[in-house]
Write a structure and sequence with these properties.
mainly alpha, Growth Hormone, Chain: A, 3 domains, 21 helices, 79% helix, 0% strand
């Protein structure tokens, strides 16, 4: 009689950890939820924060932009370094420390007395978040066996999409009942609960052979990413990527990142082995992750203006209209692996990106009186397409490296998620702004030159002028809606083109469905690498 040991693969995860793996995943999802959600929750509170005290902080447009960007800059700039430190110091320690910093920053932001304080405390929140996000995926890879990792990553990926979409809903509900600071203070009790559960359930892990720390590489990677992302965001804010400041900052960021790559290639103890990118599958997966988040954040950016400014819905109603996008990702992400098993990574990811491209192009049919259910169907299909990209490419990235390098793989994946998000908002935001100004400037000819320039910056600025004109502003309101719709259609087509480019990359470089004997061989190779 064959013994169980003869037919059961050797388990790499300790039995005690294996038994509570789903509870651990739930704790990781809770930690991930608050840091991803905070990327979108502030958008709902912007108008309130801009009102004078005591209702708000009286923040200017520039200060509001920095309140959003300070979080993104620090978050994106430190993700890579945070993953490396988790590999070296222990993922659990880094995760708990990051949660504590995020919670403290949230409490301070809630009671900010000025816009400058809010900007600074948002940066503190970004610092904590940078240490939380990569650690959650790295811990996941160390508590699940290889055969369950795709399912767990699918759930994790669905949680990212859910958090992005429910941010506006949460913010709208809080602002209906409390003051603007509640959108930050709500994080504190969640952080306390997450830390308590983390101490109880989550095991620690680290790279058993981390080598020496590479301080030069750490400084170069952080500096380069911060400069690059800052330049991208500035380009979006100014709607002009040819601006001298934008070109100088972005160029400096790229130059520093090139120096980082050169340094890492020459170092005998690099922070990251840049030869990972010689693997076409790994690189193509990173590209796909970047582009799908480019589309997600870009479409969320202009869709919110369409729903609120053109269609007249409240922030809470806008958040509810985004629910199909979240539900589709949450439901489809864990099941995307079934499509991979049947059709392979290449076909699944390519099809997902083509669906994303088609739904972006579908925004060109939306008008001022289009039935709202059409938008809901577009969001539903878009979320489904995104889930069938994020799940397979996340698995490919994480399984491309040995288990003990999970923090590095997670950091790379999440860094490019944030870069893709920043690019989506900056690039598509710039296209939207330029197209809108071109469509509305002829209608602003009667205004003084200074007021004309300010009124043409966005649909919100134009509508503010129209409100001050009273009855005479009704024609300007109609013109603003028409100009924005044209700009949205142009922007959507740009986004669709980017998604098609991603589909081509996936079709050319991602692997198909391997024969079953090759899948088994890869599993043995992974176990050997982990040993």
């Amino acid at each position: 009689m064959t013994s169980p040991a003869a037919i059961t693969p050797a388990r790499q995860v300790p039995e005690a950890v294996h038994r509570r793996r789903w509870a651990i995943l739930a704790v990781l999802m809770l930690s991930l939820l608050i840091v991803v959600l905070d990327n979108s929750i502030l958008n709902v509170a912007i108008k309130t924060i801009s009102t004078p005290a005591p209702g708000g902080l009286g923040a200017t447009q520039s200060e509001l932009e920095w309140a959003i960007n300070s979080y993104t800059l620090v978050f994106a700039g430190l993700l890579f370094t945070a993953g490396l430190l988790g590999d070296r110091l222990g993922r659990k320690k880094v995760l708990i420390g990051g949660l504590a910093v995020f919670g403290i920053g949230s409490a301070l932001a809630a009671f900010s007395g000025s816009p400058a304080e809010l900007i600074g405390f948002r940066a503190v929140m970004g610092l904590g978040a940078a240490f939380v996000m990569p650690a959650t995926l790295a811990v996941l890879m160390n508590v699940f066996e290889r055969d369950e990792q795709p399912k767990a990553i699918g759930i994790w990926t669905g949680g990212v999409g859910l958090a992005i979409a429910i941010g506006p809903i949460t913010g709208g509900l809080l602002l209906d009942h409390f003051w603007w600071g509640s959108v930050f203070l709500v994080n504190v009790p969640i952080v306390v609960l997450a830390v308590a559960l983390m101490l109880w359930l989550v095991p620690d892990s680290r790279d058993p052979n981390p080598g020496r720390i590479d301080p030069v590489g750490v400084v170069l990677s952080v500096t380069g990413l911060v400069l690059l992302v800052y330049g991208i965001i500035q380009g979006g804010r100014l709607a002009d990527f040819s601006d001298a400041t934008v070109l100088a900052t972005t160029g400096a960021g790229l130059a520093v990142l090139v120096a980082f790559v050169v340094h890492e290639k020459r170092s005998d103890h690099p922070s990251i082995d840049v030869t990972y990118f010689r693997d076409k599958v790994f690189t193509a997966s990173i590209v796909a992750i970047t582009l799908v988040f480019f589309a997600l954040m870009g479409v969320t950016f202009f869709a919110v203006f369409y729903v609120q400014s053109v269609r007249g819905h409240s922030p809470l109603e806008t958040g509810l209209l985004l629910v199909p996008l979240a539900v589709a990702q949450l439901v489809s992400a864990p099941r995307a692996r079934l499509a991979v098993d049947r059709f392979g990574n290449r076909a699944t990811t390519t099809a997902g990106l083509l669906v994303v491209a088609a739904t972006l192009a579908a925004f060109t049919v939306l008008d001022t009186d289009t039935p709202i259910w059409v938008l809901e169907v577009v969001f539903l299909l878009m979320g489904t397409g995104m889930a069938h990209v994020m799940t397979p490419v996340s698995v490919l990235v994480m399984q491309a490296l040995p288990r003990q390098k999970a923090g590095s793989a997670s950091a790379l994946s999440n860094t490019f998620r944030q870069v893709g998000s920043a690019l989506g908002i900056a690039v598509l935001g710039s296209v939207l702004s330029a197209a809108y100004r071109g469509g509305i400037e002829d209608e602003l000819g009667l205004l003084p030159p200074a007021a004309r320039h300010a009124a043409g910056e966005s649909i919100e600025a134009t509508l503010a002028v129209a409100d001050r004109l009273g009855a005479r502003g009704e024609a300007l309101t109609v013109a603003a809606d028409e100009a924005f719709l044209h700009a949205m259609h142009v922007t959507a087509l740009w986004g669709a083109g980017i998604a098609v480019l991603g589909a081509i990359v996936a079709a050319v470089y991602l692997p198909g469905r391997p024969p079953k004997h090759e899948e088994g061989d890869r599993g043995k190779e992974f176990v050997a690498a982990a040993d």
